[in-house]
Amino acid sequence: MRKIAAIATTTFREAMRSKVMYSVLFFAAFVIAIAALFGTVTIGDQIRVIKDFGLFSISVFTVGYAIIVGAALLHKELSRKTVYNILAKPVHRSEFILGKFLGMLFTSLVMVVVMGAGLMVFVWLFSGVPDWLLPQAFYFIFLELVVVCAASIFFSSIVVTPLLAGLFTLGVFLAGRSAEYLLHLADKMELTGAIKSLLHAVYWVLPHLHQLSIANSIVYGERLSLQHAIWYSTYAAGYAGVLLCLASIFFRRREFN
Amino acid sequence: MRAIEIENLSYFYYTDFLRRKIPALKQVNLSIEEGECFGYLGPNGAGKTTTIKCILGLIRPRVGHIRIFGRSSLDTAARESVGYLPEQPYFYDYLTVAETLEMYGTLTGLHGAALRSAVSQSLERLDMLSRSSSRMRSLSKGLTQRVAMAQAIIASPRLLILDEPFSGLDPIGRQQFRQLLFELRKDGVTILTSSHILSDVEYLCDRASIATKGEIRSIIDLKKRNEVLKGHYELVLRTEGQVPPDLLQLATRTRPQGPTLVLEFESEEQGRAALALALNRHCTIERWEFCHSSLEDMFMSVVQH
Fold it and tell me: B77, A6: Cβ pair inside 8 Å?
């Protein structure tokens, strides 16, 4: 466990000290500020616009960061050969994969917390009262990141170029966000037999990210039950676990020529 | 006990598209005893780094077995007693030297007070205490090499595998590395080192192998170098005056060296006869000595054949 923690801490430290993360945070803060200004000139519920735009920005920036950095993570280790020194120690390759994942996830968590705190302050300033439902939305954005980080590690363990790994992860994210449409499609087109079964299979294989996207409910003041939170947390952890196991299997077979 | 045992090791790479096999190692057999210092020599492409990667489990042997202190090299636990210095060490840019060593120490199983003590000890041994809070990206190649050595020895390994340990070091650093390796050897650490600097291998190692094109061609016992490595006699004359032709006829080889002429003789008798003749003809004698052929001569002869 200490070895995994050491790899995770190193990944986190590297990310926290690089300029990329601060650029993303700065840009996100800028967009949230624009959203706040946009909200003030909106006819109707300006607070709702700020929350909606703010949650959307946090999700887009953190997922974007996870896809770009995660897809390049293993590639960078291999091209810079930093992985050689680590795997020459008594470290299992699965420990390396898990350490990298946790480091990246913790970095994403810090981003969500910082951006989320910024959005909370904006909402408080504009409405005069803090919105304690927002942290629930931040938690679900984090759950989505658990799956996206695992997917980016998975793809970067099986494909050679970070661009391909990034595109595959983006594809899975977009497909996961719109997975429910596959079932609607099957019903609407009245598909039967093999094609319907195939669509259902694809639906179950894809991560159900549409169910983790609860920004709308939060914006309209709906509170999610604890049972829902536990179920979706288990789902995200399980899905990420399967992806990381597969990533470990592929990474174990990799030769460092 | 044998520190490393390599049996019938073969490895080949595949080309990208046609999947043709390119042999990198061909039936390598080698055993290194515990406490021994072994030099693994060969020109570029001889398979030195590939052998080291196989030992460390970074690549799997296509054929054959490797054991480290009796355990299969494919077993992660076999690397618990191994320290490794890569040919071109790369580290995380934004970590400090101390953080880097803490990470590698943790990966070898150290923690708490033992880890902190190991970090400061290895920094001290490599004369890097004053740079412990420097970021890795700010270090020169030589200083990075020192950090690489520090992480290799941090957990007091029983086996140290060094891939070109002297590359990028200035003369002072090289001297310090030699001294450190000498001390580690005295402490009973087994050392396997590949190097292009043959004089260092000659100085440090008990045995050395010379490999070319993935095969070990020769293993030399450097403790018996005087018996194994041949030598010759040299008479060095100033060449202001004429060198007598009959003196030249006695020499096996001659070569000019600055303002002198070097005459080489295979036997002592020939050398003594030439020396007597040179004295008789009033030649200016600079030197007369027996010269060992070096490991470099042996290396060149094996590689060129």
Answer: no
Quick check: B57 and A87 CB within 8 A?
yes
Distance from CA of B162 to the nearest CA of A (A): 12
Domain that holds residue B118: 2-225
Q: Which of A195-199, A251-255, B72-76, B286-290 has the lowest mean pLDDT?
A: A195-199
Instruction: Give me the residue label for tokens 């019903």.
Output: A187
DSSP B63-92: EEEEEETTEETTSGGGGGGEEEE-SS----
Domain boundary residue, one of B200, B225, B250: B225
Same domain? B7 vs B69: yes
Same domain, B157 and B116: yes
State the residue range of the domain holding A101: 2-252
Furthest CA-CA distance within chain A: 62
Torsion of CA A188, A190, A195, A197, to 10 degrees: 90
In terms of domains, do B176 and B234 share one? no
Whether residue A117 is contained in a domain is answered as yes
B76, A80: Cβ pair inside 8 Å?
Answer: no
Rounded average pLDDT per 10-residue block, chain B, 305 residues: 87 78 85 90 84 90 89 88 88 89 91 90 86 87 89 91 84 85 90 83 84 82 68 81 79 84 84 86 83 71 67
**B107 to chain A: which residues are within 8 Å by CB?**
3, 6-7, 86, 89-91
Instruction: Give the residue from A206, A204, A213, A211 showing the smallest Cα distance to A63.
Output: A213
Is A30 a member of any domain? Answer: yes
Q: Can you give the pLDDT at residue B228?
A: 60
Provide ipTM, 2 decimals: 0.79
Q: Is A257 part of a structural domain of the chain?
A: no
B71 shares its domain with B160: yes
CATH at B96: 3.40.50.300
Q: Chain B residue closest to A84 (CA)?
A: B58
d(CA A82, CA B123) in angstroms, rounded, equals 20
* Residue A25 pLDDT > 80: no
Cα angle B156-B159-B161, degrees, rounded to a multiple of 5:
110
Q: Do B202 and B90 belong to one domain? A: yes
Final residue in a domain of this structure, among B193, B225, B257 = B225
Residues 135-194 of B with CB under 8 A from A: 148, 151
Same domain, B9 and B99: yes
Number of structural domains in chain B: 2
Shortest distance between the Cα of B94 and any Cα of chain A, in A, equals 6
Cβ-proximal residues to B50 (8 Å cutoff; 6+ apart), any chain: B11, B24, B25, B59, B214
Lowest-confidence segment of A104-113, A115-124, B24-33, B217-226 by average pLDDT: B217-226
- In this prediction, residue B46 carries a pLDDT of 82
Asked if A90 reaches chain B (Cβ–Cβ under 8 Å), the answer is yes
Instruction: Look up residue A122 and give its two tokens.
Output: 């904006």
